[in-house]
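User: Could you go from structure to sequence for me? I need the amino acid at each position, not a summary. C-alpha cells:
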C-alpha cells in the first residue's frame, strides 16, 4: 500500500490559504500506518513552527506516522487577518483540513495546544473524522481565560507583548460566548489524551483535570510536573515521550480491530 499524496493546497471556507508543513512517515512503515496522519494545531499568538511541534512531527515520522502542522488563518504565513482569529473560525479551519486529507485518503488524529486544544474538543465532539484526540495544555474555561489574561487590554493592544498579535473584539466575544468546552467533553467518544505541565502559568492544570473528569473516564490525563505552558527545554522531550507512544498504540489497536 502506497502512502496517499499530501494535498497541494488547503483553503478554508473563506478562501484563505492555510500554511502547512507536511512531514512524511518513515518509508518502511507498515501499510496501515501509511494512511494515518496526525494534524497538529497551535495555540493563541503562536504558529506551526514551535519547537515542541517540530519535535513531535520528527518523532512521529520515525514511527511511520505522517503529520501536518497547520497555521490557522490569520496566523504565521497563512492568509487572513489575525484580528479575525478565534476558536470558532479555527474549528472551521480544522474542518477544511479534514476535508482535504480525508479526500486524499488519510485517517486522522488531532493534536492541539492551548487554544488549539479547545478547537480539537469542539471539532471532535461532532466530527467522526477525528479518530483520536490529544490536548496539550488545553484551555477549557474560555471566558475565564480571556478575562484573566486579557481583561485589561483594549482593542489593538498587543497580546503577550507581541505587536503582531493585537487583541480584538472578535476574539473577546468568541471566548466569552463559548464560555467553556467542558460540557462538550461529554460528546467526545474517541480515544483522548490530555497532557498538562505542572509549571504552566498561562493555563492552570485544573482546565485539563476538569476535562478529564467530564469525559467520564474516556480521557487519560498525564501531568508533567516540571513542564511549562509551551513545553520548553526538557518539557519538549517529556511531551514527545508521552504523546508519540500513545498515538502509535492507538493506530496499532485500530489495525488489530480491523479499522485499518
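Assistant: Here is the amino acid at each position, in order:
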Amino acid at each position: 500500500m502506497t502512502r496517499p499524496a499530501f494535498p497541494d493546497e488547503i483553503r478554508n471556507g473563506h478562501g484563505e490559504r492555510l500554511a502547512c508543513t507536511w512531514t512524511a512517515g518513515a518509508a518502511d512503515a507498515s501499510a496501515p500506518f501509511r494512511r494515518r496522519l496526525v494534524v497538529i494545531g497551535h495555540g493563541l499568538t503562536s504558529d506551526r513552527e514551535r519547537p515542541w511541534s517540530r519535535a513531535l512531527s520528527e518523532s512521529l515520522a520515525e514511527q511511520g506516522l505522517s503529520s501536518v502542522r497547520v497555521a490557522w488563518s490569520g496566523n504565521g504565513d497563512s492568509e487572513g487577518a489575525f484580528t479575525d482569529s478565534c476558536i470558532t473560525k479555527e474549528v472551521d479551519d480544522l474542518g477544511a483540513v479534514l476535508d482535504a486529507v480525508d479526500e486524499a485518503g488519510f485517517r486522522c488524529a488531532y493534536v492541539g495546544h492551548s487554544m488549539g486544544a479547545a478547537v480539537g474538543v469542539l471539532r471532535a465532539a461532532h466530527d467522526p473524522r477525528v479518530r483520536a484526540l490529544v490536548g496539550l495544555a488545553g484551555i477549557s474555561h474560555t471566558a475565564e481565560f480571556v478575562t484573566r489574561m486579557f481583561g485589561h487590554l483594549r482593542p489593538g493592544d498587543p497580546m503577550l507583548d507581541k505587536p503582531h498579535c493585537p487583541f480584538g473584539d472578535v476574539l473577546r466575544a468568541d471566548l466569552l460566548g463559548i464560555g467553556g468546552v467542558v460540557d462538550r467533553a461529554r460528546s467526545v467518544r474517541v480515544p483522548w489524551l490530555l497532557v498538562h505541565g505542572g509549571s504552566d502559568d498561562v493555563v492552570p492544570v485544573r482546565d485539563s483535570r476538569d476535562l478529564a473528569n467530564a469525559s467520564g473516564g474516556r480521557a487519560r490525563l498525564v501531568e508533567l510536573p516540571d513542564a511549562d505552558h509551551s513545553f520548553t527545554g526538557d518539557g519538549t522531550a517529556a511531551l514527545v515521550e508521552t504523546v508519540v507512544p500513545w498515538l502509535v498504540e492507538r493506530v496499532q489497536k485500530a489495525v488489530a480491530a480491523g479499522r485499518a
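One structural detail worth keeping in mind: The helical segments are 31-34, 51-62, 87-104, 115-124, 142-150, 169-178, 206-214, 234-256.
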